[in-house]
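I would like you to help me understand the sequence and structure tokens below and explain how sequence relates to structure.
___
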Amino acid sequence: ELRHRASPWQRNLGYPLAMLGLLALTGISVLIVCFHVLELLLDDAAMPRGMQQDASLGQVSFSIFGSFGAALQVVLIFYLMVSSVVGFYSSPLFTRLLPQRQDTPLTKIIGNCVSLLVLSSALPVFSRTLGITRFDLLGDFGRSNWLGNFYIVFLYNMSFAGLTTLCLVKKVSWAVQAELIRALGEDR
């Protein structure tokens, strides 16, 4: 219903550009994680432990690409935050927790607050473990003991890269396949 009410510009330009942006962000995050996996295999310094150097904020860039890389890290972390919230509320176990307009009981509101607090607290550790950023924010998240375990960090990165690639290929290939079937007229 929303698609039918959308303007032709929004349907023909807005939706495809948004889809390409999401595909690009997903692809970039998978590439960064794959690069981090290679770093893990070659160098022990790539482990997401606490920061080794005593760098003051603003004096040393935390990205090899400078300001552009730092901006890309911010965009990717925001994308991971939004996609984890969407994924959380899309899972069959938590769809009932989704608030309804002017009909949400207090227990659901408290449940949503707790869920969003847990997701936002896990985001810095998540982004550090995947190698998207090396910055610790204000908490020293690198002191967690399991972040020094190579096998846990390696499997975490590999599972993220593998599952994200699988979802990306599945969604894109099924959509392309459905459009080809529809275009060839074999859906009848």
Observations:
- Residues 14-42+67-132 form one domain.
- The helical segments are 2-5, 8-42, 66-90, 106-129, 150-184.
